[in-house]
Design brief:
Elements (H helix, E strand, L loop, with lengths): L1 E10 L2 E7 L4 E5 L6 H13 L8 H4 L6 E10 L2 E10 L5 E4 L2 E2 L12 E5 L10 H15 L2 H28 L3 H47 L6 E6 L9 H14 L1 H7 L10 E6 L2 E2 H4 L2 H23 L4 E5 L7 H11 L5 E5 L7 H5 L1 E7 L2 E3 L1
Parallel strand pairs: 3-13, 3-14, 8-12, 12-13
Antiparallel strand pairs: 1-2, 1-4, 4-5, 5-6, 6-7, 9-10, 10-11, 14-15
Helix pairs in contact: 3-5, 4-5, 4-7, 5-6, 5-9
The structure holds adenosine-5'-triphosphate (ATP).
Length: about 375
């Protein structure tokens, strides 16, 4: 797929800006805080309807304005699509495809696919398990947009069950036996919903990691000069012996029953995919604890390349690659591996504060745009 143009109106520090992309690689160069990452963030929003930097739409809309818009024209194998996302400070966002407003945001997902690689991703190995879960979830959302809905349902059930457990704890402290009995039967209903929605999440995460692991392993071996073996393992919070809905639900329910007293004592849900982990080991040693910075960078690079390949395999077209200030963090060998892997096949948008670290051949074949205070200059 190929992003032909991007139009930002009252988005972050852009008042009005139109960019035409005329090469497979675009380098956005500029000093700090000029709007380079904001531009990549706009593309990320079109791909996932999420930003890894902002939670609230009002932070995305240009200060002093009520509404911001990101619009793009994308060429896909089966034709050209116009995408638009309108963000509002006081109301819900809306999305449109080919100028037609969509009723369900879900239908917007999966049109533009992109892999984001920023310096924040370098924390994927050492950061919290939540980071790794978010990473897998964002891949799943692109591969199978309905996953966004599944995850949302699970999180809703989780919040409600947590509220109930909290209330349960308060009432059991006050020894109110009628309320306790009522709460128990209500809790059983939420257990069932947690199990149904949670099993969907668990099974999908397991499936995607099974496909991603060999790809990441191959890239990792190649980048490390075949000296290291990466293992990527899903460690779900509930036992998962086979990909069978009933077996997974049964295991989930059993674990809830085992942890019943602890959950009531702590007033929170202790069982479910919100407590999953994804483990990385290098030569059978946990990368998180023992990996050097260089090894961790190799690992994250391998994960990102695997992500590109998997999306390409499943979607049938190469996704975009967004490299946010990350090339400078990689040494020459890793940079070259990355550049060799993407060649001209994956349209790539790269931000940087200086062009010095780029290979001359790369510069020649790239479109270079200067970003200054929310404006783009050639
Ligand atoms: N909602 C907003 N309205 C107006 N300006 C904003 C808004 N959100 C962020 N900005 C401005 O955007 C700029 C940050 O841009 P961005 O994060 O793209 O930086 P950058 O060019 O990538 O630089 P760096 O190399 O530091 O990452 C800051 O000047 C910030 O004040």
């Amino acid at each position: 797929m190929y992003l032909k143009s991007l139009n930002l109106r009252s988005f972050r520090n852009y008042r009005e800006c139109l960019v035409d992309f005329d090469a497979p690689k675009t380098i956005l160069v500029g000093n700090n805080a000029q709007g380079k990452s904001n531009l990549l963030e706009a593309v990320e929003l079109l791909a996932t309807l999420k930003s890894h930097r902002a939670v609230r739409d009002r932070d995305l809309v240009c200060e002093g304005t009520a509404e911001g818009k990101i619009a793009a024209t994308l060429e896909r194998a089966n034709g050209t699509v116009d995408l638009a996302l309108t963000l509002r400070t006081q109301a819900r966002r809306t999305v449109s495809l080919n100028s037609e407003t969509l009723r369900r945001q879900l239908d917007f997902l999966g049109v533009l696919n992109a892999v984001q690689f920023s310096s924040l991703d370098l924390d994927l190995v050492r950061g919290s398990p939540e980071m790794r879960r978010n990473w897998v979830d964002s891949i799943l959302t692109q591969l199978e947009p309905v996953y966004a809905h599944i995850l949302q349902q699970y999180n809703q059930v989780l919040r409600q069950r947590n509220a109930l457990l909290k209330a349960f704890r308060k009432e059991s402290d006050s020894n109110n036996s009628t309320a306790n009995t009522q709460n128990s039967s209500e809790l059983a209903l939420w257990d069932a919903q947690l199990v149904t929605t949670g099993s969907r999440v668990t099974r999908r995460r397991a499936r995607v990691l099974t496909r991603l692991a060999p790809l990441a392993q191959t890239w990792h071996s190649s980048i490390s000069g075949r000296s290291e073996v990466l293992e990527l393992k899903y460690a779900p919070n509930i036992s998962l012996e086979k990909d069978d809905p009933e077996a997974v639900q049964q295991a989930f329910l059993e674990k809830i029953q085992q942890r019943r007293i602890a959950e009531q004592h702590q007033g929170t849900t202790l069982v479910g995919p919100h407590r999953d982990e994804i483990e990385f080991t290098i030569n059978q040693t946990p990368a998180r604890v023992y990996g050097s910075q260089g090894q961790q960078r190799t690992l994250v690079l391998a994960l990102k390349l695997a992500e590109l390949k998997l999306i390409e395999e499943v979607v049938g077209e190469p996704p975009l690659l967004l490299l946010d200030d990350v090339l400078a963090e990689l040494d020459l060998n890793r940079q070259n591996q990355l550049l060799d892997a993407i060649q001209d096949r994956f349209q790539t948008l790269i931000t940087t504060t200086h062009l010095g670290s780029f290979d001359a051949q790369w510069l020649d074949s790239s479109q270079i745009l200067c970003v200054e205070a929310g404006q783009i200059k050639r």
